[in-house]
Write a structure and sequence with these properties.
CATH class of the largest domain: Alpha Beta
Largest sheet: 3 strands, parallel
CATH topology of the largest domain: Rossmann fold
Radius of gyration: 32 Å
CATH superfamily of the largest domain: HUPs
Number of strands: 12
Bound molecules: glutamic acid
Number of domains: 4
Length: 464
Amino acid sequence: MKVITRFPPSPTGHLHVGGARTALFNWLFARHYHGKFILRIEDTDRLRSKQEYVEGIIEGLKWLGLHWDEGPYYQSQRMEIYKRHIERLLAEGKAYYCYCTPEELEKKRKEAMAKGQKPRYDGTCRNRNLPPKPGAVIRFKSNLVGETAVNDLIHGPIIFNNSELDDWIIQRSDGTPTYNFVVVVDDATMGITHVIRGDDHINNTPKQIQLYEALGYAPPAFAHVPMILGPDKTKLSKRHGAASVLEYREMGFLPEALINFLARLGWSYGDQEIFSLQELIEKFDISRIGKSAAVFNQEKLLWLNAHYIKQTPNEKLAELLKPFLERKGYPSTSTDYIIKVIQTLKTRAKTLLEMAEMADFYFLEEPIYDSKAVQKFLVPQIKPALKEMLHTIKGMSALDEAQLEQAFKRIVEKYALKPRNFAQAIRVTLTGRTVSPGLFEVMTVLGKEKVTKRFERILEKIKE
Ligand code: GLU
């Protein structure tokens, strides 16, 4: 099957979860069928479109790994093409100039509303054969009788009554073409075979289908994907903690996790949750997109991220973690050291940011001591045991987990300590807190010098 899909964001905001999912579905569908995926920037709204959003969207797509085969095309650079199509429609009597003023239209709109009718253009200029005039709009002569069927690949056939439509504007009074017009011209001239988009566009589709017919183009197949809801079942928004794709990167999510998460928002394959990108390409099909709205679940995203952190080789994690360590302001260290640190944290941290936070004591000269923990565990009774531990450590040529454990056990016995209390005392000494990776692991990663220093500093502070 020949497949050409597209992702056509309007650069009036950031690339958010919904847009990224649409891009992913189009991308996966194209990859599955060895087709083409096109990026098109829908920047006809000059007032609201911003270059920084274009750049952000492109960066977000690249970060996710959704590479496009063609584009980015910019609608703002395709005005000639739109003009040609409008002229053709005018010449064939399929579009016409309309002189109705906004005031007149507003008056008619109010009258219709007062009568409880849907406001619709009443066709005043439809058969007047008006010549061009500055400030006039151009309307498409819709077919207002019969029905238009959208054979949606997700929802099945959706039948629209043409009497619901009206002669909609294809060119505004300032000479710019409108969204429903340019999208059809672009999709047709770019050879798009499948339009996969949010179902908020479903009501545009009958208009667009009529336009394809008027222009003599075969319409593509349509698949309208149900929207994404927040946990409270209202349309997903920032309120629900949903962020832009690049914000997820800043929060320390891996692109693999976000891709996996997005794929499962509305698409499923049995009850499988974890998919590699390759597997998604193999398994993705529109027929497996659900008909009902998907619910955004932040916990699941965290769970997936934790999974992918565990899966990622330490060397790669180190490169990904470095910017987070830098942003925390930690002194720089060798990559080898970072790799050892990661090994102790990769099963604990759900995000790279969390990992950087958990790792503070590995990088800071002095740990940030939790004063409650200090008070509770670094008590005078523990001092002799800590002293002896330090002494033993000093006697080791290098720190070794098994040897450290032996020493720990011997001292616990000798001083008749509760193992947990002694462990916590050492933990607080080394990390400043009561929760950390395994004690002996921490010590070997920190190394003899740092461990010794921290013991000495604490021993000075504990009163006998
Ligand atoms: N620019 C439109 C949007 O961002 C695209 C609609 C479409 O896919 O046709 O919603």
